[in-house]
């Protein structure tokens, strides 16, 4: 969870449309998926009592959007200063079950990584992670929502939340990558990660990298026109002027894998993330980016675009993303009263 000034968050209410083109050479390889396909992206919601009370209205509004055919929640189903209780998880799960379209939920740090905090209930984060998995992934290999559909998951590795699927000739991967340095930030009362904490991070990171590579391998084999990666962590927060190795080192192998696979892919790659709460669209590994040397990426990655969605207490919209023959377009749709 990241905290942002209210004056910055208040800018989230604007309605903005963006188009990023898919090169015709990559789109021409297959006629599959030429019909427009639209999905919604939300994350870092609901935060606090007001949003919790209003969340059913958010679900209803997205359900009523005739264009949306799938929903992605990028994690953080609570704020970072509230209790990580079984009862709260069950409450959010009941709301998730009311989505009419398939719902792909990517786990965030607030619902497990940060639960060691006293105001979160002083839980063992690994126990909370196990609980989140049991509550939100009762049928591994299937999405949430009223119209659940099959997806390819890593359930056999104990990580049911990492899933892959294809829509409109675009390969998707939901990846469990979280803030708090991907769970390497020391827990309350500790000065360094515990052995159990480190083992969890290493295992989950290896699974994430495996999923990234398998997604791109399948996308090349199927001649998909684009790849979409969905995750909670903002690994390229533009508001951090001087990022430290201590705060980001656990992301390095993941970023390197994304850079390698993106560079070897002929089409565009899109990374959608939450975590930092303020809408942003950029190319995080373009020439001249400070993140290239920071993460040890030697060659710019020109086909990787990144979108950070609005979140936290100031969020007032969901992101509507449409895939058509030649472009991915997205628009911030304001919540209705």
Briefly say what this structure is.
By secondary structure, the chain is an alpha/beta fold. The protein is built from ten helices and 13 strands.
CATH class: Alpha Beta
- Write down the domain tally: 1
How many distinct beta strands? 13
Low-confidence stretches: 1-16, 19-32
Oligomeric form:
single chain
Shape: globular
Q: Please name the CATH topology.
A: Purple Acid Phosphatase, chain A, domain 2
Structural class comes to alpha/beta
Q: Distance N terminus to C terminus?
A: 26 Å
Strand order of the largest sheet: 5-6-7-8-9-11-10
Total helices: the number is 10
Radius of gyration: 19 Å
Q: What's the SSE pattern? A: HEHEHEHEHEEEHHEHHEEHEEE
The CATH architecture is 4-Layer Sandwich
Helix content: 25-40%
Biggest β-sheet, characterized?
7 strands, mixed
Q: Whole-number average pLDDT?
A: 91
**How much of the polypeptide forms β-strand, as a percent range?**
15-25%
Please, could you describe this protein's structure?
The protein has 337 residues and is of the alpha/beta class. It has a single domain, classed as 4-Layer Sandwich (Purple Acid Phosphatase, chain A, domain 2). The protein is 30% helix and 21% strand. The strands form two sheets. A seven-stranded mixed sheet has the order 5-6-7-8-9-11-10. Strands 1-13-12-2-3-4 form a six-stranded mixed sheet, with no helix packed on it. Helix 4 links the parallel strand 3 and strand 4. The radius of gyration is 19 Å and the shape is globular.
